[in-house]
Amino acid sequence: MQKTYAHSTTQAWLYLLALCLVVLLAACGSTTTTTPASTPTTAPTATPTAAPTNTPTTAPISTGNSVSIANFAFSPASLTVKVGTKVSWTNNDSVTHTVTADKGAFNSGPLAPGSTFSFTFTKAGTYSYHCNIHRSMMATIVVQ
Ligand SMILES: [Cu+2]
How far is the CA of 73 from the centre of ligand 1 (A)? Predict the structure, then answer.
């Protein structure tokens, strides 16, 4: 008799526990179901105006094969050419500059105002160069 009684009480506790769990789960479920209604008003209006400006990809790439030296700077600072291109630097400044590759591939020596130095690039690579007189003058030729 005592055994069955004890058994039935544990069963009753288990039922209670299960009931509590169900109630808790139901509570959780009800809170999650209420949330999605409030959010969707803000998102869709802000973005669509920014898109159409991306088109002109051709502009920033410097074509041609000449570099101007003026105002203590090489222009363009980065020039991309194909293998075999002869690049010319013209000193349009009022002082002497040099066109000197950082790794020694080319060196104009002192380039007086108004004069031009040329070099033909036969190997692909990135050629950083500078002015030996004014070390802040730096630029790059990219050979593809
Ligand atoms: Cu210089």
Answer: 8
